[in-house]
Amino acid sequence: MLFQNDSFRRAPGTRPLLVCDLTQSYSPAGGGGISTYLREKRDYVLTRTPHHLLQIVPGAEDRITVNGRHIFAEVAADPVRGSPNYRFILRTRAVRQLLAEYRPDVIESLCPWVLPWTAIQHRRAFPETALVAGYRTDFPNAHVDRVARDLFGPFGRIFYWLSLGYTEMTYREFDAVYTLGQEARETLRRRGITRTDVLPLGVDTDLFHPRMRDPQLRQAFGLPGEGPLLVYAGRIDNEKRADRLVRMMRQLPRELGAALLMIGDGKLRARLATQAADLPIAFAGFETDRAALARMLASADIYVSAMADETFGISVIEAQAAGLPVVGVASGAMPARVPPELGRLGPVDDVAAMAANVQAIWHGDLAGMSVAARAHVERHFSWRATFGRLFGTIYPKALAEAAQRVGVPISEPVLAQA
Length: 418
Description:
By secondary structure, the chain is of the alpha/beta class.
């Protein structure tokens, strides 16, 4: 077989599971919410469980790396146009060969395109396989509707309705589906998808911490002024509405002395950098070093985001862990992430309201919001809680569904955490 690998074999009847993560949304540089999730999950599995973990991601070439109970399988894929840090797998046969070779007990699908149906096809050949899906992006709204309307105008709505049909058809095939918040769970319920749970994500509170603050960071990026240093971390593209942040900067009075640090890459970066040449904005690029990212966040004063379709907002809680109030929009998961004591939310695409909210926080109780943001994350978000729920609740439900499907009594696997 193409991916023959004799260094990993499980003896029949062993109780620990082989869990497989399957995704297109991986960057070897380590950025992005799913890349962070994969890394944190690997560390959790190896340090707190007896399980084995297979992670299948796109890469520059076919390659398998085995490190004890962790198998990292890269499938050769072409780069995504406009997002050079990401690749997109079209060679589904290669993925199915990997799945047939390793025969995971659970497959967790982490993105909506192509690969969920690869997992479903594998399950048809091996019906005892439990399928779990993470519904991490409201893609009919965030991706399909926006792009189709830009390309086709009102007729683009047809593609939105087709994507809703795709959502229903795809996620009903899974034994368990989790969303990152209650709003997304309700969206799926309205589409007839009911085997769902909510799985809040976590943050590394030791790394993302106010003590990482560097008073020289502003000067290092050549940003003038002594007012608020704003920061954004994420893709600089249409989905994230990154252009609204540049427009918001034009709404701020010059005497405020504000500056903006935009961390990330994407198809809008070059265009926005040109448009913002007269503004105090620095484009830091895609940051590969997590410690450097933590330093940038902690060195700012306010986190800003115009994203309207966020399903969780891991960059938001990383910023809050670093002690930053948040200015965003009252849409998607933002209201759940940013209660009034932690920031200000305004209408979607209202850059004047965003600018007013920045000024309100800067002239208000900035220090109090900073302390409250850090305390909020410490109370509510940890990767240990995330994966404890995944392995302790969601996976057992999926395994029970799979056992019922094949008509055999379920023998409880070891799902304990340390």
